[in-house]
Amino acid sequence: MSQAIILFAHGARDPEWAQPFERLRAALAASNPSVMVELAYLELMQPDLAAAAAALAARGATAISVAPVFMAQGGHLKRDLPQRVDEVRATHPQIRFSLQPAVGEAHAVIDAMATHIAAQALKQ
């Protein structure tokens, strides 16, 4: 099985906004060299989910996990993303797609953010 991950972010008009997500993609790919990692955006930036899934399918992915790089399960993750995952599932029936919860809801992420914020605030 060829595993892949799509990091799914909101998107913005300012191209610099994507830099942390590009660094995250690079770090994830470097620490998991046997896993293909792509970025996809909900709006305003490319590639979108369909294009990222197509690129991974062309590279031989057989299982794709979609990881929303959002703080919480808002409307986009409750409605828009599941619909888009269903659409790519229909387009690529040979690939097993799974959808992760918003990364910002993970205890480890919240703890890391709290540690970082406290360290920054207390060094003043």
Model description:
The chain has 124 residues and is an alpha/beta fold. The protein has one domain (3-122): Rossmann fold (3-Layer(aba) Sandwich), CATH 3.40.50.1400. 45% of the residues lie in helices and 19% in strands. The chain is built from four helices and four strands. It has helices at residues 19-31, 49-58, 75-91, 107-122, and strands at 3-9, 36-41, 63-68, 96-99. It has a four-stranded parallel beta sheet, sandwiched between helices. Helix 3 links the parallel strand 3 (63-68) and strand 4 (96-99). Helix 2 (49-58) runs parallel beside helix 3 (75-91). The N and C termini lie far apart (50 Å). The mean pLDDT is 96.
Any key phrases for this structure?
single chain, 124 residues, alpha/beta, Rossmann fold, 4-stranded parallel beta sheet, 19% strand
CATH architecture level-2 label: 3-Layer(aba) Sandwich
Tell me the span between the first and last alpha carbons. Answer: 50 Å
Q: Do you know the CATH topology?
A: Rossmann fold
Shape: globular
Q: How many domains would you count in the coordinates?
A: 1
Helix vs. strand class: alpha/beta
CATH class: Alpha Beta
Strand content: 15-25%
**Overall pLDDT metric:** 96
